[in-house]
Amino acid sequence: MKTAATTIINEQEISDILQKYSRPSHEEVRDVLAKAAEMKGLNLQEVAVLTGISDPLQLHELFETANHIKDTIYGKRLVLFAPLYISNLCANECTYCAFRAKNKAIVRRSLSQNEIEHETELLIKQGHKRVLLVAGESYPKQGFQYVLDAVQSVYRARYSDAEIRRVNVNVAPLSADEFKLLKAEKIGTYQLFQETYHHQTYKNVHLGGKKRDYDWRISALHRAMEAGIDDVGIGVLFGLFDYRFELLAMMQHIAELERVFGVGPHTISVPRMEPATGSDVASHPPFPVSDLEFRKIVAILRLAVPYTGIIMSTRETAKMRSETFALGVSQISAGSRTNPGGYEEGVDDDVSGQFCLGDHRPLDEVIRDVAQMGYVPSFCTGCYRLGRTGQDFMDLAKPGAIKAHCGPNALSSFMEYLNNYASPETYQTGIQLIEKTIAGMEGLPADRARKLVNRVKKGQKDVFC
Ligand code: SAM
Ligand code: SF4
Predict the structure, then answer these.
(1) Ligand 1, closest atom to CA 97?
(2) 72-361 adopts what CATH topology?
(3) Which residues contact residue 443 at a Cβ distance below 8 angstroms, ignoring those fewer than 6 apart?
(4) Which ligand is nearest to the CA of 89?
(5) Nearest atom of ligand 2 to the alpha carbon of 206
(6) What's the pLDDT tens digit per position in 200-216?
(7) 94 within ligand 2 shell (Cβ under 6 A)
């Protein structure tokens, strides 16, 4: 590996900077917001200035700037996906998680490959095209091969000829050789959350198993990228430690990936800790993040790394989700279950799942709601399938050219959803939104969008540019 894991996060530097900018002046905040509006990202000091904002007027300006950046770069697109929990076997003792080894309150289960295929069919039947495969850190007797087989099972699944087009993966850190095998299965993004970048807190909440090793975890994305996985996703479990520290630490992690590989993470996830069966910590987070602080976190990230996708899961309520779309969230899960086999059983997974969900609505309802708010639900997987990943994606995204692809592709993938899966009400809402969105586009993107949508209307599938 090209970096010693221990040098990625410099806690002293973070504390010094946070202290220096704990009460930034109006001028300092204004300067940072003006720089952020240029959409070239922010450095550590500038992010610290934004974390120090408490004045309501300045917060408002922060949210306005985030909204402007989100609109300019991403338009009204919102990418949708569903998690697929394949196993809740786990050898670790993360105090906040229902899957931890010693928790006797949940039923353990790892799905067979046939069951994984069947769960996937149920997701396809709803209209999903992107799956995030999730597992605890212990595999059945096949070992890591179980995960590789699971990716194949998801890609193999069909419902009425339709398929999943992108499998992202969130499993425990792998060795370099294992990452190469995962890459060979044609996964999309490999996601891994550091949970907390604060060393002592990390030690306090990870009481057993391999996950105790902070360095093995923080170096995982380096191994993934060295193994050729172009798109990696980072995240913090908000609630474990001071969010200001975590934001700056994330910036250090990103800077290190950029330094070594020339490109940072493809996505950032912002899970906020939710109650989980058998966990006191999850019900009483040591550093609870309020709704306002949560919106501030999303807005700061949008300014700090404008071209990195921000993912929000169904941990959050429908209300919080709608409030953060405008601030920079670009991908959301919908209709989720966090217990293996949950799509088949259709049970509410607050007892048997990994954590409690804030948004229990089915995909069709989420889509209708999102569309009514003027956001275009996107199932597009075009970039990844055309090889626009990693550095290539960033090169295309940074000058804004991605708009000429993403806008039309979002609309054609949405049209495909409406044609094949939508309820009559959602269909009506969706068609109106598609027409209105194309009417508001100009030039090449408008032409492309019109052509692609018309091809889908005539019955073609998987149409993208
Ligand atoms: N076992 C692997 C790991 O820990 O990296 C991957 C899967 S784990 C199920 C996925 C993520 O769930 C964890 O990284 C953690 O951030 C999140 N999680 C665990 N407990 C949670 C809770 N109580 N509330 C919200 N998210 C939680
Ligand atoms: Fe296991 Fe992951 Fe849960 Fe920790 S967070 S107990 S590693 S499933």
Answers:
(1) 20
(2) TIM Barrel (3.20.20)
(3) none
(4) 2
(5) 4
(6) 999 999 999 999 999 99
(7) yes
